[in-house]
Amino acid sequence: MLSRVNSLAEMQTADANRPEVLSGSEAFYRTALESLSEGVMILDSDCRIIYANRLVHEITGYSPEELLGQTPSLLRADSESTACTASKGPADEPKSFEFEMKRKDGRLHWMHVKTTPYRNDGGEVVGRVVALSCIAKQKNLEFENEFLQDEFRASLGNIIGHSPALQKVLAQIATVAPTEANVLILGESGTGKELVARAIHDLSARKDRPLVRVNCASIPKELFESEFFGHVRGAFTGAIKDRVGRFELADNGTLFLDEIGEIPLDLQSKLLRVLQEGQFERVGDERTRTVKVRLITATNRDLLAEAKAGRFRLDLYYRLSVFPIEVPSLRERLEDMEALADHFIKQASRRLGVPRPRLTKLHVQELQSYDWPGNVRELQNIIERGVILAKGGKLQFDLPRRVRIEGLAATASSLDGNGKLSLDELAVREREIVEAALRRTHWKIYGADGAAALLRIQPTTLVSKMKRLNVQKGKRLSFLSTGQAVGSATGSPIIQSKLAQLLCLSAELQTGCLWSGRWKVLKVLLNLTPVIDGIHRCSFPPLQISARRFPTLCRRA
């Protein structure tokens, strides 16, 4: 056929447009070449084009007159203009390669080229047949995939934040990723354990191999062995064909087992065997298979406590926890709140197709005041709901009413018992909350990022509270704590109550909130005269007096 094609090519070179009276076989070969779904060119021994089918003209944009007699370098987009790529290497061997072609109109396309030598009747190579196929779409996908992988790896698996707690995790990832050690990732639900596993895989030598993910909590107990190791046809009811297990899929790659604590105890011995020997059998098969898998596991349980309780194999725990990494909760990395919130706002706005709302400092402070039991996953959901409700306007977060300060929760729980009840504790809690808001806003009262906005009260109301509670920058005083300390020292609840009243009145006197406060203070002191001897070791900074002067003040009053 090639000899026929050669004669056909010579006729086309002589006159590309002149109709020829062809023999039946020549017409057949020409029709076959013109019907191919690939572009076909025939080159002579000097690497010049002597024939090109219809699809070559469509791909390149050149007419037959412009192509015939030219070398393939006419189509190259790079600087290699003199060499004939199709004739490089051994002349009697086929070869294939990719190159970027430049069309007549200047557009660039990636092409896959396969060249095959053809011979004359004496067996000598007299030219080559070149097949061209466009791979622009495939090449674009490859470039896009490579770009996304590079971007992903550069950002350490899209882990966002610069807090010290997160920097410690990133340092651990960079340390263990190049090794083959098994990694156990610990942390609460929603902290991003899967992102850590992906970052370890992408920074390892196995990055070009698959990362197979398995959520152990979603697998029924009866299917664990089949899911991990696979099965053969007929192994059990419903096994209508052979199935490859996750360990076999992850061969020479990485297997990530999330919620590892959910694996049944009777299967843990088989998992231990794979980790130790790299061998397993499919369900219903006697053939032993060998794999080389790096294992990364994650859990929100205390596996050591589970092992001591007999619910997890201790030897498997030691095999898994070669290099443990503990991912901090969102409560431990509040410094990252602004970066995370901004990232999720951009993500949600782009996905929902709505204008991006503005994130203010007040929003960040509001998010930081919440305890985030669901961690980053809950933050993402809260922000997405806020973006939906904003509708391109002002951003608002619908945070659940949960108490972040542990002390208040402890106080509330203590009231359920038989402890002593007192409304005086409300004043203490109010002062603590006001001081916390002021410290968080750097003692700024007014404005959208001030303490008044954080507490959701008017600035004038906050100023009044500060005067009433004697809240001053750089000065922290708890009235009740002093009174309770004195009452505790003397063993008298009467003194405790009276001194609490005394100290609150003295604070009002100092701030000018109570003009007749002096007489009320002396009145309280008069009632303390019978027990004045029991508090001679105490002093009271709000009144700037000592216990030694109490008897004198009482007599004067």
Class based on secondary structure composition and strand pairing: alpha/beta
How many structural domains are formed by the residues? 4
Largest sheet: 5 strands, antiparallel
CATH topology of the largest domain: Rossmann fold
Give me the number of helical elements.
23
Strand content: 5-15%
User: What is the assembly state of the chains in this entry?
Assistant: single chain
CATH class wording of the largest domain: Alpha Beta
* Shape field: flat
Calculate the terminal CA-CA distance, rounded to whole Å: 129 Å
Number of strands: 16
3D structure, described in words:
By secondary structure, the chain is an alpha/beta fold. It has four domains: 2-137, Beta-Lactamase (2-Layer Sandwich); 155-326, P-loop containing nucleotide triphosphate hydrolases (Rossmann fold, 3-Layer(aba) Sandwich), CATH 3.40.50.300; 330-390, Helicase, Ruva Protein, domain 3; 477-557, no CATH class. Helix content is 44%, strand content 14%. The chain is built from 23 helices and 16 strands. The protein has a five-stranded antiparallel beta sheet. It has a five-stranded parallel beta sheet with strand order 7-10-13-6-14. The longest helix is centred in the N-terminal third of the chain and has 19 residues, at 136-154. The protein is flat and about 110 Å long. Residues 1-5, 13-22, 403-415, 476-492, 507-526, 528-547 and 553-557 have low confidence and may be disordered.
